[in-house]
Amino acid sequence: MSSSWFVFTTIIFPLVAVMAAIVSPQVEARAFFVFGDSLVDSGNNNYLATTARADSPPYGVDYPTHRPTGRFSNGLNLPDIISERIGSESTLPYLNPDLRGQKLLVGANFASAGIGILNDTGIQFANIIRIFRQFEYFQDYQRRITEIVGKEQAQRLVNQALVLITLGGNDFVNNYFLVPFSARSRQFSLPDYCRYLISEYRKILLRLYELGGRRVLVTGTGPLGCVPSELAMRSRNGECVPEIQQAAAIFNPLLVQLIQQLNSQLGSTVFIAANAFSTNMDFISNPQRFGFVTSKVACCGQGPYNGLGLCTRLSNLCPNRNIYAFWDGFHPSERANRLIVQQFMIGSTKYMNPMNLSTIMEMDSRT
Ligand SMILES: *[C@@H]1O[C@H](CO)[C@@H](O)[C@H](O)[C@H]1NC(C)=O
Ligand SMILES: *[C@@H]1O[C@H](CO)[C@@H](O)[C@H](O)[C@H]1NC(C)=O
């Protein structure tokens, strides 16, 4: 009995301490978790039988490898740029088999193009990972890191992580407004639909809190009526489509209200609202000020505004992606993504509520 105690204290315990010291630098670096739709999917859909995918050229044309990765961008997407700003490597898609061992400690991306707040959003894309399934994978993830660093460290890694969730756009463009007289538009007026979405989003955010999320960046929806795809299908003369803009104008303020309620209910700034509408609208209404030649025409696509159909090898492709705000009919170019993340980092309360990410990062580094 006493000799085994001796073995533990003089040999095993120091050994464990040394090992912990070796492992801990990676554990201490802040992890990053991503949930949501195509704006933040880094390639999960490559592994699924779905039409919502970005794994063939010219997607990725400006990515470091110049190959498609599943990101809906010419180069980096929003999560990549956030990772860059918090000083970590990009998080891998959860379904990527390379995501194992120490790599898990960097975090993971669970996002899947085509999904929405509602389970019936994106049904036309067949096999996609809906938000509650993304959360099941997150639980799975937590079991896996518990095996590597133990229960306490795993819990800490999750609680101290930065989390990004981007949802809502598809509930409008790929559900309510997808076809005239869609089931949801017959069921709900637009304001009632927005209230319904918010009531479902509340459950989603509370679940994320239950699963350990403590710093969660929640992006509202962008100016959906201004994307090249909607301009091509619905705009009269290149103006943003009013009823779709109206959707974002109703939804976003309700989301900010929800976030304020949740934070006061939880007694802490768990959720941070990022105003994706204003950040995008800045360069959509004045593209030249930001070095873009246009915010109406997508770089890659065909038809009016290059906004019809998908971006493929056969599409028009602009030679210089840095001067286009939109890469394809729905998604910003890497350069536009950089402008958006810049506002996440340092934006005033017009963009970030209750505070921006640099303030959050500074607060968290002091505790
Ligand atoms: C969506 O699906 C999840 C489980 O997959 C379920 O828990 C949830 O209640 C569903 N939401 C609605 C509004 O039906
Ligand atoms: C946002 O970030 C900037 C630069 O770090 C800071 O000066 C500013 O006070 C912050 N604003 C808010 C509202 O948090």
Automatic annotation (TrEMBL):
Any one GO MF annotation of this record: hydrolase activity, acting on ester bonds
Protein name: GDSL esterase/lipase At4g28780-like
The family this protein is said to belong to: Belongs to the 'GDSL' lipolytic enzyme family.
UniProt keyword annotation of Signal present: yes
One GO BP annotation of this record: lipid catabolic process
Superkingdom: Eukaryota
Signal peptide as annotated in the record: 1-20
Record-linked InterPro entries: GDSL (IPR001087), GDSL_Est/Lipase (IPR051058), SGNH_hydro_sf (IPR036514), SGNH_plant_lipase-like (IPR035669)
PANTHER family, A to Z: GDSL ESTERASE_LIPASE LTL1 (PTHR45648:SF167), GDSL LIPASE/ACYLHYDROLASE FAMILY PROTEIN (AFU_ORTHOLOGUE AFUA_4G14700) (PTHR45648)
Pfam families xrefs: Lipase_GDSL
Keyword Hydrolase found: yes
UniProt KW keywords: Hydrolase, Lipid degradation, Lipid metabolism, Signal
